[in-house]
């Protein structure tokens, strides 16, 4: 859920991207994308907003409506206001650290964009490092194991939900709370 002020900001963003890019000095490519850092700079200047990359991600994560999306350091409008229908889970306090096993080929992307649910509703995490290894081994013989600093993530508003014994679900986790386990 967004506050009234945040909703206003989100709507200003989609208005700029959908209808009036020129009014905000934005240049969109053929797919409707514009470069994220340039977008932030222009919006702050022309619309008097105080956007940052983190603030945009936070708006996206907490919004019920998808008005715009961020991919590969670019941003564009989303049409049709698809409303995310999530399986509602109860927020719980996770252990201090949780683990996620993933193939090497995803690591660069994860360390840039953070952990995202991709096709699922939530990010999947394990309480035990060993379980994360098993999950990662579905796709890579020697997977990368990421350790999630859940305290810091919770402090920034990331929600965690307890699934079955030892398995946790969460909202997207920014890369700054992830650490590659090396041992
Ligand atoms: C990766 C099984 C690029 C993520 C198991 C994972 C598990 C990113 C893959 C459960 C990314 C998604 C879940 C980013 C995350 N860039 N790749 N920014 N963020 N990824 O299968 O966690 O099949 O949807 O690391 O027991 O592997 O349901 O999730 O490799 O608990 O029975 O994107 O699935 O159970 O893959 O596995 P998945 P997962 P079930």
TrEMBL record:
Q: Which GO terms describe its biological process?
A: tRNA splicing, via endonucleolytic cleavage and ligation
Keywords assigned: NAD, Transferase
EC number of the protein: 2.7.1.-
Q: Is Calcium there in the keyword field? A: no
Top EC class, one word: transferase
Check the record and name the Gene3D superfamilies matching this protein. 3.20.170.30, RNA 2'-phosphotransferase, Tpt1/KptA family, N-terminal domain
Alphabetized GO MF terms: NAD+ poly-ADP-ribosyltransferase activity; tRNA 2'-phosphotransferase activity
Report the HAMAP family cross-referenced here. Answer: KptA
Matching PANTHER family: PUTATIVE PHOSPHOTRANSFERASE, TRNA 2'-PHOSPHOTRANSFERASE 1
**Summary of the function given for this chain in its UniProt record:** Removes the 2'-phosphate from RNA via an intermediate in which the phosphate is ADP-ribosylated by NAD followed by a presumed transesterification to release the RNA and generate ADP-ribose 1''-2''-cyclic phosphate (APPR>P). May function as an ADP-ribosylase.
Q: Can you say what this protein is called?
A: Probable RNA 2'-phosphotransferase
Species whose genome carries this gene: Candidatus Enterococcus clewellii
């Amino acid at each position: 859920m967004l506050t009234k002020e945040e909703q206003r900001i989100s709507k200003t963003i989609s208005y700029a991207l959908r209808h009036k890019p020129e009014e905000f000095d934005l240049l969109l490519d053929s797919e409707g994308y514009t470069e994220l850092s340039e977008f932030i700079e222009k919006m702050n200047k022309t619309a008097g907003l105080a956007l940052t990359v983190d603030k945009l991600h936070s708006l996206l994560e907490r919004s019920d409506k998808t008005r715009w999306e961020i991919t590969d350091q670019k941003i564009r409008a989303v049409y049709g206001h698809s409303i995310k229908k999530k399986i509602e889970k109860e927020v719980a306090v996770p252990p201090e650290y949780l683990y996620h096993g993933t193939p090497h080929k995803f690591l660069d992307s994860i360390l840039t964009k953070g952990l995202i649910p991709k096709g699922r509703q939530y990010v999947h995490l394990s309480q035990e490092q060993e379980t994360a290894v098993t999950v990662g081994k579905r796709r890579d013989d020697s997977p990368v194991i990421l350790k999630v600093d859940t305290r810091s993530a919770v402090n920034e508003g990331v929600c965690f939900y307890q699934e079955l014994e030892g398995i946790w679900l969460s909202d997207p986790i920014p890369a700054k709370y992830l650490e590659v386990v090396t041992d």
